[in-house]
Amino acid sequence: MGTKQCVVGYYFSTPEILDAARKTNQRGFKKFDTFTPFAVHGMDEAMGIKRSKLPFISFGAGSVGLMTAMGLEIWTHYYSWPMNIGGKPLLALPAYIPIFFELTVLLCGVTTAVGMFTLFLKLPNFTKPIFHPDITKDRFALAIEVNSEAEVEPVKRFLKEIQAQDIHNVEGVL
Amino acid sequence: MSTQNALQEEHLVQEEKTYRDVSNEVCKPLESFPTKLWWIAFTISASVMAMGFSLIGYMIYTGVGLSGIRSPVGWGMMIVTFVFWIGIGHAGTLISAILFLFRQKWRTAINRSAEAMTIIAVMCAGIFPLIHTGRPWYSFYWLFPYPNQMGPLWVNFRSPLLWDVFAVSTYLTISVFFWYTGLVPDLATVRDRAKNFWRKKIYGILALGWRGSSRGWHHYEVAYWVLAGLSAPLVLSVHTIVSFDFAVSIVPGWHTTIFPPYFVAGAIFSGFAMVVTLLVIAREVFGLKQYITMSHLDSMNKIILATGMMVGLAYATEFFIAWYSGVPYERAIFLKRALGPFAWAYWTMVACNVLTPQFFWFKACRRSIPLMFVLSIFVNIGMWFERFVIVVTSLSTDYLPSSWKYFSLTAWDVGVLIGSFGMFFTLFLLFCRLLPTISIAEVKSVIPPKEASHGH
After folding, report:
1. Count of domains in chain A?
2. Structural domain for A157, as ranges
3. Does one domain contain both A77 and A98?
4. CB-based contact, B208 to chain A, within 8 Å
5. Beta strand A32-35 with A5-11: parallel, antiparallel or unpaired?
6. Same domain membership, residue A116 and residue A59
């Protein structure tokens, strides 16, 4: 039973990291990730990342927001405490539309932002290793997770083969 | 890499910048002791803010009678200024969301500060309706639907004033989430550069443990698209709903269908003018001229010109429709606007909003810093007067001539108005000191990679 480790190598430009990510993906590695200072265009295809499921959550939250607004407005005005204000109809659907829209957007937007960070990125999380402080500046890292000590050397050799620099291993998971 | 070549031609960032330069130069104001200039500006604006809040406190203690609102003008400076500040906010969302959806890459250098401006402006705006109520501690009862023992008595969902409550609070919330989402990768940059323990801790917590993982970036970008897609119609809805406050009433001069597009265009117009005012100062003070370039300012001035023309067209259309409608009250109110007791305000508005932007037809004017600074201030004066003209002229001379009355601002009104500018600039100066004013990650992504990576 070995401890989980990450083998990390570095690159210094976007074409290099894209090429390395593509090769790592083609070699059949599953548990690997790249770390970049900004969203690199074309990285999704290079790493073989599938489309995000986040929009489904956004859509669901938006629908809940719309339903909440409908329920709230119709119930309060029509059932809970009907009030005649200026002879306007109690079920004044057109007048309800602005709040339908606002609550839809509110719930959808907040859930998308919060859901993206918590459910998809598993943040906030302060325990995972930050491989190099320059990753948020100008360094691009490729990290491969391995299950045991024995796998470390072959993975290091692979990283060397794809021209990674400063290769080292860190204890922990991706 | 054809897209990158295209970007290179646009000169989004002047000179050859490396990724490292971007981090260093954007973070510099955060990591050094504030300059004397910053302290002077901060002291002045914070004092003005303190004065404003003291006046508000005294006004609430004594009663809103201190403000100029007298029958028949029940909506005075507070509502005028509320609409003004909400309008200022609109440019930030336009830059961050609508230009993003249209893939206008030049927005990357200005979107962070413009969004901050949005949030601060909406906060300034939010104060005014609360003071206007006179008893702000009751606001929660009046504004939000909550279960209660009074019936239960609910808010009136058929009222545009209530739509406004929902629109403005949704707008503020979504803007904050959108802005924060954009900030997280840059906060991680600040965290990783930090040498001081507490600095590292605080920015570290704010950065949520962001590591720049590509699997994370993937979801992050999707979320950013969704938020931009939501913010775009949201920003249009906010000023539309603010205009409903007027348009849904039956007051002559307010009861017009042109109000929603007219208000939105005016909001973007004034907001861009405010962005120009702020960025002209910020790029000078914080040494960001190579990121917020002349071509950025040029593009913003073009938008000011375009929206200024829309606003001018709306003024003309209002007059035409008032005449064409054949309604005597409509005709009378518009004649009074241009020729009546408030003609001075009306022509100030026309001069500032329709005439000043015309300078921007000329490239030399669009690229002259002193000129655009002065013009942007004129535009904002004009836009404040636009709301003044709309709110006050219609109310002061309504259907019943016996109750007609002139409206004038009191010293309290002026003090609170100036105080809100103090609050705006205080918060903006704090933002410039504490957070990266330019989206570091986004700017890096528009630099061609060949140039950006050397130095190893």
Report:
1. 2
2. 5-51+128-171
3. yes
4. yes
5. unpaired
6. yes
Domain boundary, last residue among A120, A140, A162: A120
Residue by residue, DSSP assigns B3-38 as: HHHHHHHHTSSSS---HHHHHHHHHHHHHSPPPHHH
Burial B201-237 (b: 16+ CB within 10 A, else e): ebbbebbbbbbbbbbbbbbbbbbbbbbbbbbbebbbb
Cα distances (angstroms) measured from residue B61 to each of B55, B56, B416:
10, 8, 14
Which stretches of B159-293 are DSSP H helices? 160-193, 197-206, 214-247, 259-285
* Closest to A70 measured CA to CA, from A92, A100, A102, A101: A100
- Claim to verify: residue A146 and residue A107 sit in the same structural domain: no
Sheet holding A32-35, edge to edge: A32-35, A140-146, A5-11, A165-171
Task: Report the SS3 class of residue B158.
Answer: coil
Q: Is A13 exposed, middle or buried (0-12, 13-18, 19+ CB in 10 A)?
A: middle
Helices (H), B326-367: 328-339, 343-350, 363-366
Q: Do B212 and A135 touch (CB under 8 A)?
A: yes
- What secondary structure letter does DSSP report for A163? T
Q: A86 pLDDT band (50/70/90 cuts)?
A: confident
Q: State the DSSP string of A65-83.
A: HHHHHHHHHHIIIIII---
Gap between the Cα atoms of B115 and B274, Å rounded: 12
For residues A40 and A84, state if they share a domain.
Answer: no
Q: Helix/strand/coil (H, E, C) string of B82-107?
A: HHHHHHHHHHHHHHHHHHHHCCCHHH
- CA dihedral of residues A94, A98, A102, A108 (deg, nearest 10): 30
Residues of B in contact with A112 (CB under 8 A): 223, 226-227, 230
Structure confidence by residue, pLDDT tens digits, B188-228: 999 999 999 999 999 999 999 999 999 999 999 999 999 99
Q: Hey, is the C-beta of A111 within 8 angstroms of any chain B C-beta?
A: no
Is the domain of A86 the same as that of A105?
Answer: yes
The one-letter amino acid code at B381 reads I
Domains and CATH numbers, chain B: 57-142+156-449 (1.20.1630.10)
> Does residue A106 share a domain with residue A61?
yes
3-state secondary structure string across B380-396: HHHHHHHHHHHHHHHHH
Task: List, for residues A3-53, the tens digit of each pLDDT value.
Answer: 788 999 999 999 999 999 999 999 999 899 999 999 999 999 999 999 999
User: What distance in Å separates the CA atoms of residue B135 and residue B63, rounded to the nearest whole number?
Assistant: 9
Nearest to A121 among B174, B191, B219 (CB): B219
| Interatomic CA distance for residues B142 and B120, integer angstroms | 24
Minimal-distance CA residue of chain B relative to A21: B214
Average pLDDT over residues B8-18: 65
Contact B277, B372 (CB under 8 A): no
Residue B131 φ/ψ, nearest 5 degrees = -65, -40
Cα–Cα distance list, B169 to B81, B133, B174, B243, B438 (Å): 17, 17, 9, 16, 26
- Contact present, A37 and A138 (Cβ < 8 Å): yes
CB B42, CB B426: distance < 8 Å: yes
Using a CB–CB cutoff of 8 Å, tell me whether A12 touches chain B.
yes
Same domain, A41 and A96: no
- Do B50 and B415 form a contact (C-beta atoms < 8 A)? no
Distance between CA atoms of residues B409 and B325, nearest Å: 32
